[in-house]
């Protein structure tokens, strides 16, 4: 009897330790995510007030006067940053259970921004991306998949298929986070290897989102495995 109680106590302590460890891990991830979101916000603030000769646009002077490019660029810059806070509301168990209205409305905001504003503007910008066809094809494909996954996330939610809704939203958000991972890879590559600028664009154009979508699929499969 005493042995059974000891085993039960040990199992309980082990379970609590795992839960605590998981919470700490997620807290660290949220802090890192918040930090990079802040850095992206700082990048966005460079273009406020409206300026066509600052930061990234200084190397895009050859295409900036192409019809609709400026509209696409500023639409993307001003709206894409709005999708990042969705990470705090769409994937938080606390928000989903305790604040379902907030979860729902921020979800609709995320979907609207991606499908109507950030996605299409990013698609148009991809046509003129630095690095030639290799980079351009990557950014166009990224934008198409981002819009596609988001639309299907909405459709599945409306159909009441919340499992598929969550899976498509994970894929969509993995591509949204490419705004952060692309820059992180760029800084790392330049720091370690000092490659030519065009080589950097061609590499990070793919490296910025391919690992994200692979990780998203692994997360989805782990969720499915845990529920079986």
Topology:
Elements: H1 2-45, H2 69-80, H3 86-90, H4 93-98, H5 100-127, H6 132-158, H7 162-176, H8 178-193, H9 197-207, H10 210-227
Indicate the overall shape.
globular
Q: Using DSSP, what is the number of strands? A: 0
Q: What is the end-to-end distance?
A: 33 Å
Elements, N to C (H/E): HHHHHHHHHH
Key structural traits:
mainly alpha; 10 helices; 0% strand
Can you characterise this structure?
It is a single chain. With 228 residues, the protein is mostly helical. It has one domain. Helices cover 80% and strands 0% of the residues. The chain contains ten helices and no strands. The protein has helices at 2-45, 69-80, 86-90, 93-98, 100-127, 132-158, 162-176, 178-193, 197-207, 210-227. The radius of gyration is 21 Å and the shape is globular. The model has no long low-confidence stretch (mean pLDDT 84).
Task: Provide a short characterization of the protein structure.
This protein is 80% helix and 0% strand.
């Amino acid at each position: 009897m005493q042995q059974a109680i000891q085993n039960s106590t040990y199992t309980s302590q082990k379970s609590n330790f795992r839960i605590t460890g998981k919470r700490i891990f997620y807290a660290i991830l949220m802090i890192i995510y918040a930090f990079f979101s802040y850095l992206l916000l700082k990048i966005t603030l460079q273009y406020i007030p409206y300026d066509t000769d600052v930061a990234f646009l200084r190397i895009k002077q050859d295409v900036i006067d192409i019809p609709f490019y400026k509209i696409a660029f500023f639409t993307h810059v001003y709206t894409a940053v709005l999708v990042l806070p969705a990470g705090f509301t769409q994937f938080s168990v606390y928000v989903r259970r305790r604040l379902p209205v907030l979860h729902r409305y921020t979800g609709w905001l995320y979907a609207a921004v991606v499908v109507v504003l950030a996605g299409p503007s990013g698609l148009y910008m991809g046509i003129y991306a630095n690095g030639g066809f290799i980079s351009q094809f990557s950014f166009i494909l990224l934008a198409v998949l981002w819009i596609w996954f988001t639309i299907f996330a909405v459709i599945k939610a409306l159909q009441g298929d919340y499992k598929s809704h969550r899976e498509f939203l994970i894929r969509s958000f993995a591509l949204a986070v490419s705004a952060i991972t692309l820059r992180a890879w760029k800084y790392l590559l330049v720091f370690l290897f000092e490659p030519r600028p065009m080589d950097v664009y061609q590499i990070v154009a793919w490296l910025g989102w391919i690992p994200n979508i692979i990780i998203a699929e692994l997360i989805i499969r782990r969720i499915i495995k845990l529920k079986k």
